[in-house]
Amino acid sequence: MEPLIDRARAFPQRAGRDLDGLATGQSPQALFITCSDSRVVPTLITGADPGDLFELRTAGNIVPPYRADAAAGETATIEYAVEVLGVRDVVVCGHSHCGAVGAVVRGDDLSVTPAVRSWLRNADPSVLRADGTDVFDPTVAGPVQRHVLAQLEQLRGYPGIARRLLDGRVRLHGWFYEVHTGLVLAHRADSGLFLPL
Fold it and tell me: How confident is the model at residue 158 (pLDDT cuts 50, 70, 90)?
């Protein structure tokens, strides 16, 4: 923890730019939804500065179903990003070697982590296990990519996003990040493939 504390103390000097402008408000370029995995660092991947990304990090980059009557922090974050901040681009970024997706694909026993087990019920095992060989791939690339597409579909069920998709005020992007190479792939609707950015 000490190295983190030391870097936090030095941040004002390291920032290298005037942060005063951030006190007046925010207008992020994108909502970036990704996994809580410590190896996935949105600002590092995108080179974003403070104020550029509105981030939502969840185990397995899961987007829960929209429910206004039983809202969760994830739902509130997405709603705030589009309704209040007017974010025009939403990225769902999955990653290789994802423990959450891997657990669903393999059918891991999660009885020691009941909250995790409950949360992962939001991931559709039939989508993740579409190719039976994926269970042997440690990168779980295929399942993660299918999972990203499922989360984009889930986002389409959010009223604010659905309205903005209809009139072109928001765009959805599916990304896949390889933690072992740093490569970022984006889903291309025309080919149905994830290809390098």
Answer: very high
